[in-house]
Amino acid sequence: MLTIYRTTYLTLHHEPLSATLEIEWLSFVNSEQLRTSLQEVLRLARLHRIRGYIANNTLLRTIRPTDQDWINEVWFPEFSKLGVQRLAIVNSQDGLNRMGIDTIMQRATEHAPQATRYFDDAAAARQWAAATNTVANQPTSY
Fold first, then answer.
1. What domains sit in the chain, N to C, each tagged with a CATH number?
2. Which is more confident, 39 or 139?
3. Which residue, 2, 39, 66, 100, has most beta carbons within 10 Å?
């Protein structure tokens, strides 16, 4: 994967052959950093016409309820227009973050790709997101 964007709190990776984009959170982010970063994800996803998206939340800390609302009300509707076929979510090491992500995803059902899976391992998430064929009976967790 190519690194196409980097800050002190995240790295964005792009894999051109499989049209995947990975956001790898590196630490806690405040509201401004989170929203700016997710807007950059949308911009780069459009530019590269991605079909697979990996949200690597391993090191991400708690997302505030107001930011969860923004993600559901503003970001996810735009994300749904990208045509992403597979969304892989790598679980956070932070328990509160995992609960926040679950809340976001429960509310995002109309905007999230039908093929959405959770992983504990980033490599497995990348491999699944890059696959071109959707398999109906995939396990929901690795």
1. 2-130 (3.30.750)
2. 39
3. 100
